[in-house]
Every structure is written in C-alpha cells, then in structure tokens.
UniProtKB/TrEMBL annotation:
Active site: D12, H40, K139
UniProt keyword list: Cytoplasm, GTP-binding, Ligase, Magnesium, Metal-binding, Nucleotide-binding, Purine biosynthesis
Classification via Gene3D superfamilies: Adenylosuccinate Synthetase, subunit A, domain 1 (3.40.440.10), Adenylosuccinate Synthetase, subunit A, domain 2 (1.10.300.10), Adenylosuccinate Synthetase, subunit A, domain 3 (3.90.170.10)
Enzyme Commission identifier(s): 6.3.4.4
Protein name: Adenylosuccinate synthetase
UniProt subunit comment: Homodimer.
Binding of Mg(2+), residues: D12, G39
Function: Plays an important role in the de novo pathway of purine nucleotide biosynthesis. Catalyzes the first committed step in the biosynthesis of AMP from IMP.
Annotated cofactor note: Binds 1 Mg(2+) ion per subunit.
Gene Ontology cellular component list: cytoplasm
Length: 423
C-alpha cells in the first residue's frame, strides 16, 4: 500500500524530519509534487541538512527514493543538492531514481518568474523566483521539457525552441538585466544536464506499480502545504501544483485504491512565508516571540516567516480535503515559553461566525474566534514519552484532536530525530 505524508498548513510544518522518522518503515519514499522551493530540514548525525527536491529517505540505506513526474526539477539545484548529500557519504546512484516524465525548470523559466513577479508591484504573489510556476505553466500548456528528453539526441534543439518562446514572452516585460541572468543561468544549466543524464532515469509509473505489486511499502512525500494547493488553497497566493492527497495519483502514476493512511503534519501554531491571507497572524510581540522561539526563517529562502496561533478552521478543511487519518504535531516545544496558548475555532466575517473557509480569504476582514488554553511554562524537549508531557500540553493536544475528529498520534518536541513522542 501507499501511505501519504503531507503538510496541512502553508508549508514549513517540519515534514522532512517526519518523513525521515518514518522512512525506515518503508521500502520506497516518493516525492509527488513541487519544486526546489521546498525545504525539508533534517538533522543527520547532528548536522543540519536541507533537502529541496530529493526525497527525505535518502539517508536510510535500505530505502529506495523516487522523484515523481508531478515534481518540476531544476538540474542546477538538483546537482548542487546531490553533491551536498554525496559529501555526507551517500551514494545516490544506488537509492535515487527519477521519473522520466518529470518536467524540467530551464533558465528562462526563472527569468519569466522574476519578470512576472516584478511586474505585479504591490500585488506580488511571494514567488521564490525559482521558475516553478512558469515550468508548471509550460507543462499544462504542452510546451515543457521532461527529464526523459535530456537523453534525446535533439535535446538542445528542443531546448532552443522553448527558449525562443520564452524570449518572446519576456519581450513584453520592461525588466532590465534579464539577458545577463539568462546567460549566467544557462552556463550552470548545461553543466548540470550531463550530471542529470547519469542518474537512474526510469518510467516512474511502471517502476512504482511494480514495487507495489511485489508487496513493497511506499510513502508518498508531499512538499509545500495543503493551504497552498493550486485548486483549494488561498488562491491566487498558492503554489502551482496539487499539494493535497489527490496529487499523489497524478504525481506518481498510481491508482487511488493503493492509498491507505494519510498522515497530516501540522505545527502546534501556524506560519506562512510570502504574501497572502493569514487569519491567525500575530503582528505583536507574541508573534515575534513565536518566530524567535521557533527559529522561523525559510529553509531555502531565509525569509522570516509570518507567525500566528494554530488555525483549526483551516486544519479541519485540509483534513477533509485529503482524508487525513492521523496527525503529527510538530514544534510543540516552541509553546513551552508561553503563559497561554490560543487556537482559532471559528472565523467571524461581517459579523457572522463560520467554521468554513470562504470562497476567497484575500481581501476579507476575518476576525478569529479564539479558545484559550493555559500554558505549561516548563521545558518539554527532554520528554521521552507522551505521558511525561505537562497536563496542560496534553489538554491542548486533546482539544485539537477532538475539534478535528482525527487523532494526533505523534507529537514532535524538538528538532532531533529521536524527539518524537508516539501517543
């Protein structure tokens, strides 16, 4: 069967560590969507490692890892990431495979991303400028290049055709310096393509289905978060792919009946990077304290994350969309320092309370309805069992459990591999 692990908020929920924790129980870890804007942070032998495209199971000797066709891959970022992992003694030629239908981010995708974002002015989406959106646009526009194309004899011809199309589009923007950017990015790109060609490029759908028929256990690893889903997130401030569990089938080429458990990951509070609505955001000292205590800065971009209390309305929505069967609550120890902890249980919009997300949050004045919990004001990072946690923290966890109707089965109380408490 296939179990799915995905984020339930706006990304940055700590999925990398959780995948790493579960990885030893699975034969295959497969990324099913997203691009190198994902930053899955793990601590391996005390050393911080940030994975962008490569699945979080690569540090387990007996685990096979697959980059699925729903991912968009930047050969330059992939090469650098691979070299960083190789420096830790990991041989990716043995346990990493790439689906041939995975789309490629080319230098002019990055230029289009940059030009588009600059042109939006104050209406910026908050793009990471890595070319991900334009790559997905070419995918749906049936113009894209795929990993399987790099081993084709006419790859450079295909590349040049796509580049010329992009240059025509770029001529509509009045952005200086793009020519120099493209020239520099192209140099790196064509140095990285031969590296990509040496990797294990496979028919991802056949590869994975053969594993399943052989009785292998698969964990599908999501990137970003459910509230960034292109269909169901806070549009237009979303990513360019389907981040909910439905994306597993199209992103890996497997049928729905293979999916068993859906493991949702949520922080004990809430964060967001970039633009877009955030109903529980705190613009005060409490928000600053959350950011400082949680070290809330983007793993890839370094951007400060916006911080707020946990949003149970949004969590209930994303649990519903993905059919979440169990929850992992991360960074619970960050709340150790607070005298009280809040949770949003409803939205007040135009004087009316609702527990449903409206058609569009952007532009609405949303007033959170809060439930307040007593803080525990003691360090929990050293706890080894769930029962060792302060009663106030257990009350908070149980309240989340009851509101969502989905069990919180794991609580992470620190960044270390061993700091996960099973409930």
């Amino acid at each position: 069967m296939v179990d799915v692990l995905l984020g339930l908020q706006w990304g940055d929920e700590g999925k990398g560590k959780i995948v790493d924790y579960f990885a030893g129980r699975y034969d295959v870890i497969a990324r099913f969507q997203g691009g190198p804007n994902a930053g899955h942070t793990l601590y391996v032998n005390g050393q911080k490692v940030v994975l962008r495209t490569i699945p979080s199971g690569v540090f387990h000797d007996k685990t096979i890892n697959l980059i699925g066709n729903g991912v968009v891959l930047d050969p330059v970022a992939f090469k650098k990431e691979s070299e960083d992992i190789a420096a830790l003694g990991i041989d990716l030629t043995k346990n990493l495979f790439i689906a041939e239908k995975t789309h490629i981010i080319v230098p002019t995708h990055r230029a289009l991303d940059k030009a588009s974002e600059i042109s939006k002015g104050h209406d910026k989406i908050g793009s990471t400028l890595k070319g991900i959106g334009p790559a997905y646009m070419d995918k749906t526009g049936r113009n894209g290049l795929r990993v399987g194309d790099v081993i084709s004899a006419d790859f450079e011809t295909l590349y040049e055709k796509l580049k010329q199309k992009h240059l025509q589009m770029l001529s509509q923007y009045n952005v200086e310096g793009l020519e120099a950017d493209i020239e520099a990015w192209e140099k790196e790109f064509f140095e990285a393509v031969p590296f990509l060609k040496k990797m294990n490029i496979v028919s991802g759908e056949y590869f994975l289905n053969e594993k399943l028929k052989a009785g292998k256990k698969v964990l599908a690893e999501g990137a970003q978060g459910s509230m960034l889903d292109v269909d169901f997130g806070t549009y237009p401030f979303v990513t360019s792919s389907n981040t909910i569990s439905a994306g597993v089938c199209t992103g890996l080429g497997i049928a729905p009946q293979w999916i068993k458990e859906v493991i949702g990951v949520t922080k004990a509070y809430c964060t967001r990077v970039g633009s877009g609505p955030f109903p529980t955001e705190l613009h005060d000292a409490t928000g600053e304290n959350l950011r400082a205590a949680g070290h809330e800065f983007g793993a890839v971009t370094g951007r400060p994350r916006r911080c707020g209390w946990i949003d149970l309305v949004a969590l209930n929505y994303t649990c519903m969309l993905s059919g979440v069967t169990q929850l992992v609550m991360t960074k619970s120890d960050v709340l150790d320092e607070f005298d009280e902890v809040l949770a949003c249980t409803a939205y007040e919009i135009n004087g009316r309370q609702t527990k449903q997300l409206p058609f569009q949050l952007n532009g609405l004045e949303v007033k959170p309805v809060w439930e307040t919990f007593k803080g525990w004001s003691e360090k929990t990072a050293t706890c080894k069992q769930f029962n060792e946690l302060p009663s106030e923290m257990k009350t908070f966890v149980e309240a989340v459990d009851n509101y969502l109707g989905v069990p919180v089965k794991y609580v992470s109380n620190g960044p270390g591999r061993d700091q996960i408490l099973e409930r």
